[in-house]
Write a structure and sequence with these properties.
The N terminus is likely disordered. It is built from twelve helices and 15 strands. The chain is globular and about 60 Å long. It has one domain: 3-Layer(aba) Sandwich (Rossmann fold), CATH 3.40.50. It starts with a helix and ends in a 5-residue tail after the last strand. It has an eight-stranded mixed beta sheet, sandwiched between helices. A three-stranded antiparallel beta sheet has the order 6-5-10. Helices cover about 30% and strands about 20% of the residues. The chain is α/β, with parallel strands linked by helices. The longest helix has 17 residues.
């Protein structure tokens, strides 16, 4: 039963709460969902306190927060490039809830986001526990256009990652490749507003991807009683024991492939490139369902531009692919493609639609390019 008293407290504090109807929830059949429009369940204005108390950017180390066991289920991603679908396994949302309950008072703030009838509480929680439709579109686009073919040695950033389905897909591709001599360093950075999202769903999903990949074979062989090294089937729900040996094997696999995974929580305004060990721009920048609110567009656009090279674009000769997966309009909040395009143009950027569908709610994938200052 939901704790409606907690929701009432949030309303009294002046938090504006939004409800999406197009999320992909673990507790229902993904194929039966009606992806509709955004609904505002409470028209109370966002308080000044929420607007000014944005979470500062900080690096998170979610490996230390994993529970002893996690459960997972398949996520089917339709691919337009062929008649098949890609199946990736992700952590069950109910399992993340169970972890929070078992941790008690330490996780009360995160628990309210599972129990709340809203999907968004601006400035407090930004919907990261749910898998959003446009993240699947982004995987479909990357697969269909061969953008995942040359990932090794690249610098990759996913903003507002949440369950990190695009990064799950990219890591799935990277871990399937053979190890080479002098393996170049591949950097994957993931950002979400809430640290609890990174701890409860983002990293667990990436570990599950590793478990299903050839990179886990030596670990699986060492754990199997019958000398088998077969990876689990991602299409079958199951559980995974998070042992010290598994953590070590996961980190060793990344090290062998020279893959660096780093996680950052906090607001886009405070994202600090000074903590990135010299990384000032990325080869691939991805974000899904992040332009739903007009108020947050300036900070997102500024960060996208900086991640693509910013004022050093000429000096670095940066050639970043920046992809934004989105619905055309987010009804009730005012966000959407038109406002985002205007915000990008004000920063001397260009927006081009590279993929779209009109099935259900109109959705697009936008490619964003930038012109250096002074040109």
């Amino acid at each position: 039963m939901k704790d409606f008293s907690r929701c009432a407290i949030m309303e009294c504090r002046g938090l504006k709460m939004f409800k999406f109807d197009f999320d992909i929830d673990d507790e229902v059949d993904d194929q039966t969902l009606d992806f509709g429009s955004l609904k505002i369940t409470d028209d109370v204005a966002v308080s000044a306190e929420v607007k000014t108390s944005l979470h500062p950017c900080q690096e998170v180390h979610p490996l230390d927060t994993l529970p002893p066991v996690i459960s997972y289920s398949p996520l089917q991603i339709p691919l337009s490039s062929n008649a098949n679908s890609l199946v990736l396994a992700r952590r069950d949302l109910f399992d993340a809830r169970f972890q929070l309950i078992s941790q008690g008072d330490d996780q009360k703030n995160a628990m309210q986001f599972f129990e709340s009838p809203s999907d968004l509480v601006p400035g407090v929680y930004e919907g990261g526990f749910k898998t959003w439709e446009c993240s699947l579109d982004l995987v479909n686009y990357l697969e269909g256009n061969g953008e995942s073919a040359c990932l090794v040695g690249k610098r990759i950033l996913e903003l507002g990652c949440g369950t990190a389905v695009p990064t799950m897909y990219l890591l799935h591709k990277i871990l399937a490749l053979p190890i080479t001599e002098n393996q170049p360093k591949t950097m994957i950075h993931l950002q979400d507003y809430n640290a609890s999202v990174l701890e409860l769903v983002t990293l667990p999903n990436l570990i599950i991807v590793w478990l299903m990949s050839p990179a886990s074979r030596s670990y699986l062989k060492s754990e199997a009683e019958d000398d088998s090294s077969d990876a689990p089937d991602p299409s079958k729900p199951s559980e995974l024991n998070i042992t010290p040996e598994l953590k070590t094997a996961f980190l060793q696999s990344l090290q062998e492939r020279n893959v660096s995974l780093r996680f950052f929580s906090g607001s886009w305004e405070t994202f600090n490139f000074d903590i990135l060990d010299g990384t000032r721009w990325y080869d691939l920048v991805l974000t899904s369902e992040t332009i739903y609110r007009v108020e947050s567009l300036p900070s997102l656009v500024n960060l996208l531009r900086s991640a693509c090279g910013g004022d050093q674009m000429i000096e670095n000769e940066a050639c970043t692919m920046c992809l934004v997966a989105t619905k055309a309009v987010y009804f009730g909040v005012g966000g959407g493609i038109n406002d985002f395009t205007q915000a990008v143009q004000e920063k001397k950027g260009r927006v081009e639609s590279v993929w779209e569908t009109t099935a259900g709610v109109k959705r697009k994938i936008l490619s964003v390019t930038w012109q250096p200052e002074g040109i």
